[in-house]
Amino acid sequence: MKIAIAGAGAMGSRFGLMLHQGRNEVLLIDGWADHVQQIKEHGLKANFNGEEVVEQLPIVLQSEVEKEDQVDLIILFTKAMQLEKMLQDIQSLIKKDTEVLCLLNGIGHEDIIEKFVPMENIYIGNTMWTAGLEGPGQVKLFGNGSIELQNLGAGKEVAAKKLADKLSESGLNAHFSDNIHYSIYRKACVNGTMNGLCTILDVNMAELGRTSTAHKMVETIVNEFAKVAAVENIELDIPEVIAHCESCFDPETIGLHYPSMYQDLIKNHRLTEIDYINGAISRKGKKYDIATPYCDFLTELVHAKEDSLNVK
Ligand code: NAD
């Protein structure tokens, strides 16, 4: 299968590498010139579960995608705020039958993708795989993960199951879901509680969990997500989702980690995905006439932090 990875940062590199090792023809597409140059010159370097690996993978700048390029599947792996520009740049690659799979964190990406891709070719999902970008051309990949995905197009369940099987052939452990929006909201609740709060408070997740107000904040934010989701006919199991979010506090598992938004903003001075997590709930709340004060405030705080660090 010929597969393009549109957005070849940490996660795109992981997927590109695993799909390449699974004997697919992989094309990486990215907008970061230094990263593209390094991979062109030295290959993609990965610390893959402790082993140093170098793979020569073709990579192009997204501005240099050619009309003649042809792929069966495009996997989108930009950050949320880079998605629309990526789709604009690779428009010529999106043909009548090209399948497009979006595995970004956050809510509502299909609204953007639909502007560029016919609904019957869109698949959305989420993933428990992780990855870290160490520098241009270099990633760190460890642990295991999984993927859940579903078709947006009516009657495309068989194609979605085939796609999951195809990804699993490369060890990506993908499964068809018949309720992907539930999973996306459930994961967004984890990001919507851990990411913004740890970033603003400058703490890891275990430290957040030890604060006297953590439970109230998590509970309130999850309830805001749940009210918005309910309008979209997604009935979150609120106590289960709160417990799922708060399981991140455990120092024996992932509690000592700083979430990705913290790494992006505080460590690397990069813009955050807040507008597609808590910000998405704020926007939808306004549209549906539902008050979402914690999400509104957290979104504003994170933007204020971006401004105060002069991140653009
Ligand atoms: P990433 O930041 O590693 O890469 C995204 C894009 O940003 C790539 O095009 C990359 O080249 C570019 N980029 C990265 N660093 C840059 C720099 N210093 N200067 C210029 N450009 C730079 O993002 P990711 O971690 O691969 O995440 C992609 C999506 O997957 C996001 O929606 C994220 O929330 C989600 N996700 C990530 C993980 C994870 O463990 N990283 C896990 C699950 C989901």
TrEMBL record:
Name recorded for this polypeptide: 2-dehydropantoate 2-reductase
Similarity comment: Belongs to the ketopantoate reductase family.
UniProt function note: Catalyzes the NADPH-dependent reduction of ketopantoate into pantoic acid.
Source species: Candidatus Enterococcus courvalinii
Enzyme class: oxidoreductase
Coiled coil: none
Keyword Oxidoreductase: yes
Protein EC: 1.1.1.169
Ketopantoate reductase N-terminal domain boundaries: 3-152
Biological or metabolic pathway of the protein: Cofactor biosynthesis; (R)-pantothenate biosynthesis; (R)-pantoate from 3-methyl-2-oxobutanoate: step 2/2
Domain Ketopantoate reductase C-terminal residues, every copy: 179-306
Reactions accelerated catalytically: (R)-pantoate + NADP(+) = 2-dehydropantoate + NADPH + H(+)
Record's keyword terms, sorted: NADP, Oxidoreductase, Pantothenate biosynthesis
InterPro entries tied to this protein: 6-PGluconate_DH-like_C_sf, 6PGD_dom2, ApbA, Ketopantoate_reductase, KPA_reductase, KPR_N, NAD(P)-bd_dom_sf
